[in-house]
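Escalated from tier 1: zinc ion holo job.
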Amino acid sequence: MSLTTRVKVKIRCRLCGEKFVLRGKKEKDKIETGFRQCICSNEHDFEIETES
Ligand SMILES: [Zn+2]
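Tier 2 regenerated the structure:
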């Protein structure tokens, strides 16, 4: 049985302020969105918010 839930994920880059809205999969405490990096090349510094 899968515990995966589909969620809407909002990502905001802390470096340039760009916002992204993606669909992701939530598995327990981990969220998989396939998001790699911002257009400013930031790969790590984001604010992430989820809505189910
Ligand atoms: Zn950015």
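Residues 5-51 form one domain.
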